[in-house]
Records
---
Amino acid sequence: MKKIRLLTPGPTPVPERLSLRMARPIVHHRSPEFEAVFARVREGLAWLFQTRQDVLVFAASGTGAMEASFVNFLRRGDTVIVVDGGKFGERWSKVAKAYGVAAVVLKCEWGTPVEPATVEKALRENPSARAVYVQANESSTGVYHPIQQLAQVTAKTDALLVVDAISALGAMPLPMDAWGIDVLVSACHKALGLPPGLAFLAASDKAWKQNEAADLPRFYFDVKRERDNQRKNQTAWTPAITLVEGLDESLAMYREEGLETVFERHARMARAARAGMQALGLALFSKSPSAAMTTVNAPDGVDSEKLVKHLFKQYGIKLVGGQDAVKGKIFRIAHLGYFDDFDMLVVIGAIERGLHDLGAKIELGAGLAAAQRSFAGAK
Amino acid sequence: MKKIRLLTPGPTPVPERLSLRMARPIVHHRSPEFEAVFARVREGLAWLFQTRQDVLVFAASGTGAMEASFVNFLRRGDTVIVVDGGKFGERWSKVAKAYGVAAVVLKCEWGTPVEPATVEKALRENPSARAVYVQANESSTGVYHPIQQLAQVTAKTDALLVVDAISALGAMPLPMDAWGIDVLVSACHKALGLPPGLAFLAASDKAWKQNEAADLPRFYFDVKRERDNQRKNQTAWTPAITLVEGLDESLAMYREEGLETVFERHARMARAARAGMQALGLALFSKSPSAAMTTVNAPDGVDSEKLVKHLFKQYGIKLVGGQDAVKGKIFRIAHLGYFDDFDMLVVIGAIERGLHDLGAKIELGAGLAAAQRSFAGAK
């Protein structure tokens, strides 16, 4: 027997309750029955985004919402500033290029967050920049970029702050209105625990104002059309009905647990995972670790790709390794979504076993003990 | 107790076998396990499309694939010809407008198919037209447009034939390569019986050639990028994993039944539904009825909206009424997907009851008897 356990930054494990809900007979989307569900989902999403704005739902992966965050708020030939600290940061430039937008790229060394002063300087040097694009959690490195401080920087300018919170929303505080985030995009298959297929986007008044002048072509991802429809609890195009039903259930679970409690659970797991890895003598890769995941340098002499493959093959534990320059050098433990303290013991225990199997000199049990102490010290 | 039964042109009922498959624990998409599923799905889709081309899978509703059929094959300022015989035909013009493409619109009276000669004339008068856009089944009217003949027309020109087979694929023959369809788009929540969230697109050599010169901006729906990835059994962006798993199961069901048998089942249900309605003295609305649905004029004195509402409220039978100019005048019975002969007895029986309840003068049982005779006479 081999139990399979995903600790990957999307998809994340789907709670049984969501699977059961989605397995119910399908309802027609142009019906009062669906509209009642969608109304509840809209309200729940606004609560989750901590915004009074509309949170729009698209049938798409997260990248669809990233594209939407360009085409709906920019004009042909506009300049934007993009923070690029990993695979997802890189994607901003690719979208910009596809749409004829000039991107000023602020490269961050992988593992390092952007400095607010760097963004401030870039905005000073590019006063016509219409927006700053950044990840909350850069999934390829586990770096949390300082969103609140970045919002303070953009607030003083005409530029929007566009945040990809695909792997962050619901795992850590990102109060959209309180912090002044202008465009917040996310997706359903991370902290929310659904299978992939829904993307979300909410925009501030400042962003909606910019939407009026935007002239990049768009159709499927037209936020204005969606807002008009979704305010009537309908979608412009056929919605991913079962995922919307599952989202209704996921948001109910969030409400039952409470937003602050969910954030604290993620923070507690992150602290324990970090403590566990450090107790094994491993160094953390991210200099600004997010609550969604823990990225770790493999010890000398251990290829992280080999470790990741071994953990899955031998123990059914699915982690992800590093990409590009850090391939073979780091491994990533995602602990966002349907996880609790004891899941951290499982993953730390598996990593101990795996490292031991591969001949690394680690003290078996040291990581687990550190995690237990971390939990005990937690509020 | 009230059993709910959907006979709507998308979503359609989800076979229990697909729901169970999709309720299984989620797998990670960047894994050999998922790649094996995706390889099988790619093969199955090519079989279903009857093509040797790649059938690309997008996490989107059908409209996403309609957009993809513009942005990947056209240049800014191009002219195209669009067949507009209903709500979905109208959508072509809207996409064209959004992307700065000039659309020569061939309006068909609702309920009437386009004449191949009309398209031929339009192509003669617009020799620079790059493509002809048409629905196979126009869901708002139940009209089947003569795809094979249209392909013969476009084959003699440089224009592509782009077919929206969202509510047609898998319910009627549309052999892409044999007929010479250049771009065939579809979705998973019609004949295939899945919940919405996957869109498909396949392109001919002629279309791929035009893709090389296309300059409309695109990112999420970039077919070239998807082809490069999907040939490696991966997708450029996170796929809708559970729907892909369900699609694997749906295609297995198709293979077990056999494509010709599925088509004959749909044709048989369509004949019986038409016979049943006519035996009740009702006239068919579509002058070119498709095998996917039967559209019917409500009898004098009966508001079709009222009938549709009554059938759902009283009997749990969900049909759809007419839109725009035919609102209140027609009702639509969709019989594509997970339906058999006996489901037709249910819906005909419910319509008889509903009409009777609303005071229409019909002979109870006449529709059912006609359907039975139709089935008995069927091969």
---
Amino acid sequence: MAAPPPSPASSPGAAPYPATDRTVPTRSRERASYDRDAVHAILDAGYVCHLGFVRNGAPVVLPTLYARVGERLYVHGSTGSRPLRGAGEDPGLAVCLTVTHVDGLVLARSAFHHSINYRSVMVHGTARQVTDPAERATALDAVVDHVLPGRAADCRPANAKELAATAVVALDLTEVSAKIRTGGPSDDPEDLSLPHWTGVLPVSPGYGPPVPADDLDPSIALPGYLDRH
Amino acid sequence: MAAPPPSPASSPGAAPYPATDRTVPTRSRERASYDRDAVHAILDAGYVCHLGFVRNGAPVVLPTLYARVGERLYVHGSTGSRPLRGAGEDPGLAVCLTVTHVDGLVLARSAFHHSINYRSVMVHGTARQVTDPAERATALDAVVDHVLPGRAADCRPANAKELAATAVVALDLTEVSAKIRTGGPSDDPEDLSLPHWTGVLPVSPGYGPPVPADDLDPSIALPGYLDRH
């Protein structure tokens, strides 16, 4: 398989992603965005995506880690993984990669207007295995740093045997949309006097204190990138 | 379309879900579980799923709310939603519904052994629209209560117009598996003396203080089900 083209660098103020039939939602179109900075910010705020593909005609949705480098996403896994093997065959694997952050529970006075504040990105495209050694190394570092910025430089890089067991898959950001809901509940005027509490319960990821491994040398201090949490 | 069969009640100690070709993972089989209680606990700990289906031969992964009632999951949405319309046609819509909770970032001394502690459930099956009015009402209450237990009784139920605009889709728990990783990093013996911090950074959902709507009557107290957060 030919190596994929180099990923174009992200540039602030660049044109939005083009809207296509499958990136224009049938519902709540006012929540859709094709702005690159908005999409990048949502992708960079997470590290777990849900990767959808078709196997034997049926959909499969796998949770997995990812990273963004410019206008390209990377996913990695075992060379034995079924979707990653599929991405190594021509013409690659048709995927839909979705990232979702929940920001709040929106409690309206009516059951019907209950909602969720969220930010999500959906990427449609063809995933292809990365074979170039330099791009593979960049991608693997990016996945580690996407989960915890600063960590890639503070661990042993993969050796030849580990690299041989790891498949890296690339998905270009070409057919992409974000969907965002913010704000409070939107009750119908006739419900405003109902006696139910209404508002938003904010939700965000919480981090507990780091738990050292049992065999950690106690002279090794907690690194700064963990101290921030 | 015929009404779906009644959902079997969940019974503690029931037989596990049968393993099938598509619920046995190719990788990390020791992390897979088919235990009903384990699956139910993971499903009940969340409220956002990623619903995969196939449209025009390509995968689509949508984040959406869900609820579990016994051995059946419910998803709701607008009657105009594409997947929900598909579930209203015979023979229903082939879906894969995945729920994922991240419990920790696992930092090993080697990049290769970095991992995530997580609990996920993957459900394969055919989603069908629910037409029975009583089952629809149960499902809609369940979705509200799944997000925030106790809330369904403390808001105005959907009226006829709202019910007519809402599609409810059911997915039976028949082909189901959980995947769970717990514990610390598993470094190779030759890496144990490397000078990198190693352990787990715990992750869990965090809730901020409830934010009342601007038009909330200040005499309405914060309900107990919100006070618990």
